[in-house]
Specification:
The structure holds 2 protein chains of 2 kinds. Chain A is 41% helix and 25% strand. By secondary structure, chain A is of the alpha/beta class. In chain A, helix 7 links the parallel strand 7 and strand 8. Chain A is globular and about 45 Å long. By secondary structure, chain B is mainly α. Chain B has one domain (3-293): ABC transporter involved in vitamin B12 uptake, BtuC (Orthogonal Bundle), CATH 1.10.3470. Helices cover 78% and strands 2% of the residues of chain B. Chain B has 12 helices and 2 strands. The mean pLDDT of chain B is 90. Classes of the chains: A alpha/beta, B mainly alpha. Chains A and B meet through helix 2 and helix 3 of A and helix 6 and helix 7 of B.
Chain lengths: 246, 294
């Protein structure tokens, strides 16, 4: 469904992504893990058109999209839930969701999807008149997810959905993502919480210093010693070993 | 001072205040959407006023049509400036401070172009309203001032309704609050910013025709009201829509009563003193005070 071929991104001449190639098949949950500053967010921003690829291709269903603007990419069925939720603070929950459906013209359709979102997150229905900034972190994440659903995406990209949330809320968000997948939505998930990401995904890619260094199924990555030591809390001692061998 | 005179002054202050509010609203919307302090907003108003008057003289339109023509022309002018100048500068990565300085350049440019094309002489608007006064108790109220207040308030309410209840309006608010997230919703920023300038220009055009009908139209008529509207927007709390409306009206009243109670000679200075006081004492403006009170 989505394919990145040797994607390279530079900010003001400094390379943020050196060479990222990956594939997401229809119906999959694919995760991108890696430490801070390795280019996970940049990869998502390049796909959604917020930053320009300096080299390489981005293919959606075989069509090149790397030169399109963000609004055209949303129109093609990619929704991006950005890091830090980025809920519109001075708009109500209901207005936030309406803005999510900006490109959907049929008002009946909007109402139908809105009901789906409220069914999935009843808390949002209770707070529909409240301003975005008055919601808790977990509620904001639900709103950001619901807002992305409003554009009826084929591919949903999530950037650090668990960041700063209590464990119980993380579980709730994870359940929502899995439920969305059941409705036929493909998911590309970026996470620092690799334990969670690998447990949820079908396949995963490890990103280091702007390059894909490893890719495998989620279960295989969970057992991979390098992944265990670097991303699954394998301990400081192992890190030191890796530095020495590197 | 008698009660009648007080009422008459208040109506005059409200009328000029509505005009400041209309200009200040456009400035506020532009600041929210782009961060640009649009010092040429007074000149956009002037363009609406001057060309509105031309339309009136050439086509003998009724007043309401003149108002609409002035609004349309000022709106188109504002969009042209945004797309032709400010957007180009933004795309080149020009720092915001430089773009704000460019707005001063645009202000001077518009004055000179209109002066060349339209002449330096102020031209007065023909009598647009019945000249009989409305009497309210002992106070004699000019129908013109009442109309300005009514039309100003109608335009401002229409803006509020647009921003609150239409999809485009809500999308514009979203784009102003978080441009990047708005793009991820499929909002086209170029379009949304152009619409912001269009609406700001339309409001300024309305102010221009209304102000012209009070006094006259000329190439230099926009400068002082533009600065005063900026003071009004600051008074209301820069970037607050409600603040710009209240700030403009309050400023009009302060200026009018200040002129009577202190001196007409200092009428314009009063506003500038007010600006300095606001910036020193409560830079967040009225909106800041309300927020702190909550």
């Amino acid at each position: 469904m989505l394919e990145l071929k040797h994607l390279q991104v530079a900010y003001r001449g400094v390379l943020a992504l050196h060479d990222v190639s990956l594939i997401v098949h229809r119906g999959e949950i694919v995760t991108l893990i890696g430490t801070n500053g390795t280019g996970k967010t940049t990869t998502l921003k390049a796909i959604s058109g917020l930053v320009r690829a300096t080299q390489g291709k981005i293919l959606l269903e075989g069509e090149r999209i790397e030169a399109l603007g963000p609004d055209q990419i949303v129109a093609r069925g990619i929704a991006h839930v950005p890091e830090g939720r980025r809920v519109f603070p001075q708009l109500s929950v209901h207005e936030n969701l309406t803005v999510g459906a900006h490109l959907v013209k049929d008002s009946k359709e909007i109402r139908r999807v809105l009901d789906e979102v409220f069914a999935m997150f009843p808390r949002l229905a209770e707070r529909r008149r409240q301003l975005g900034e008055t919601l808790s972190g977990g509620e904001q994440q639900m709103l950001a997810l619901g807002r992305a659903m409003m554009s009826k995406p084929r591919l949903l990209m999530l950037d650090e959905p668990s960041l700063g949330l209590a464990p119980m809320v993380v579980e709730e968000v994870a359940k929502a993502v899995l439920a969305l997948r059941k409705t036929g939505v493909t998911v590309l998930l970026v996470e620092q919480n690799a334990t969670l990401a690998l447990a949820m995904c079908d396949r995963g890619y490890v990103l280091e210093h702007g390059r894909v260094t490893l890719s495998d199924t989620g279960t295989a990555l969970q057992r991979n010693p390098r992944v265990i030591s670097s991303y699954l809390g394998g301990g400081v001692a192992d890190d030191r070993v890796e530095v020495r061998t590197a | 001072m008698g009660a009648a005179q007080l009422v008459e002054l208040a109506v005059g202050g409200l009328a000029i205040g509505c005009i400041y509010s209309l200009i200040a609203l456009g400035m506020t919307m532009i600041i929210r959407a782009t961060g640009i302090v649009h010092f040429a907003q007074g000149e956009v108003m002037m363009v609406g006023s001057v060309l509105g008057l031309s339309a009136l003289l050439l086509l003998h339109l009724p007043f309401l049509a003149v108002l609409l023509v002035g609004m349309a022309i000022a709106g188109i002018a504002a969009v042209a400036i945004e797309l032709g100048i400010y957007r180009t500068l933004r795309m080149r990565g020009t720092p915001l401070a430089n773009i704000i300085i460019a707005t001063i350049g645009v202000s001077i440019l518009l004055q000179n172009v209109v002066q060349l094309a339209w002449g330096s002489e102020p031209k007065s608007y023909p009598k647009l309203f019945a000249t009989d006064h409305y009497t309210f108790g002992a106070a004699k109220l000019s129908p013109q001032l009442i109309w300005i207040i009514v039309l100003g308030v109608v335009v401002m309410l229409a803006l509020q309704a647009f921003l609150r209840w239409t999809r485009t309006g809500i999308a514009m608010q979203a784009a102003a609050q978080d441009p990047e997230a708005a793009q991820l919703m499929g909002i086209n920023l170029t379009r949304s910013t152009a619409i912001t300038f269009l609406i700001g220009g339309v409001l300024a055009g309305a102010a221009g025709v209304l102000l012209g009908s009070m006094f006259f139209a000329s190439f230099s008529m926009g400068f002082l009201p533009g600065i005063k509207a900026f003071v009004a927007a600051t008074l209301g709390g820069l970037g607050s829509i409600g603040g710009a409306m209240v700030g403009g009206i309050l400023f009009g009243l302060l200026e009018t009563f200040g002129a009577v109670w202190i001196s007409t000679a200092y009428k314009d200075a009063i506003g500038m003193v007010l600006l300095i006081v606001i910036l020193l004492v409560f830079p967040q403006g009225l909106a800041g005070l309300v927020r702190r009170g909550r």
